[in-house]
Amino acid sequence: MRLSTRLLAAAVLAAAPVVVAAPAAAQTAATPADAAAAGKFVDGLADQAFAILRDKSMSRSAARAKFRTLLKTNFAVDEIGARLIRRHRATLTPAQVQQYRATFPDWVVGTYADRLYDYANSDLKVVRTLPRGQRGDVDVMTRISLPGGGQPIDATWSVKKNDAGAFVIQNLTVAGVNLSLTQEADFTAYIQKNGFDGLLKFMRDAAKA
């Protein structure tokens, strides 16, 4: 199955402001069967993403819309979003939080989706899966082979089940770099220089580009 390294970078950038406590059912370590299912989930998610982006019958705007839906459905947006602005959450107004939630998904797609077309021939293979901790988390280790024989890239997808019992991505580490932490640092730097409203404007402008 195929995947792009840009998809890996985009994948962790879904957003929402509040982390909801995990339900009691999630406080159980994942079983080997859960881990195997998580690996299939990651493999299938990548297939879906690139089926959308390689569909020549769709315009880029239509592909963006489908890609946005895919991200919102398959990523733990509450937890990821809370991570990205957690240092600033106490200082934000409800209106700012609401705007952040509304703006972030469009920013993700507007910033990254077009770039994915250039990487459609990369190949991803699930190497192994590993249950982690006591909350049902699974690390899915993958290897991405680049077109033209470039150096393969190792990526680990952190997967868990949501309240409805469906797998979702909650973080991604690529070549040893925790992408969620990296994006959090980028956001913090931008907010410190331009304020949170400045970040929101930047996101809106980028989404329209």
Task: Provide a descriptive summary of the structure in words.
The chain has helices at 5-11, 32-53, 60-74, 77-85, 94-116, 179-208; strands spanning 123-132, 137-145, 153-161, 167-174, 177-178. By secondary structure, the protein is an alpha+beta fold. Mean pLDDT is 79; it is low at 1-26.
Order of helices and strands: HHHHHEEEEEH
- Morphology call: globular
Number of strands: 5
Task: Provide the structure class.
Answer: alpha+beta
Helix content: 40-55%
First-to-last CA distance: 30 Å
Note the beta-strand portion. 15-25%
Low-confidence stretches: 1-26
Compose a concise summary of this entry.
By secondary structure, the protein is an alpha+beta fold. The protein contains six helices and five strands, in the order H-H-H-H-H-E-E-E-E-E-H.
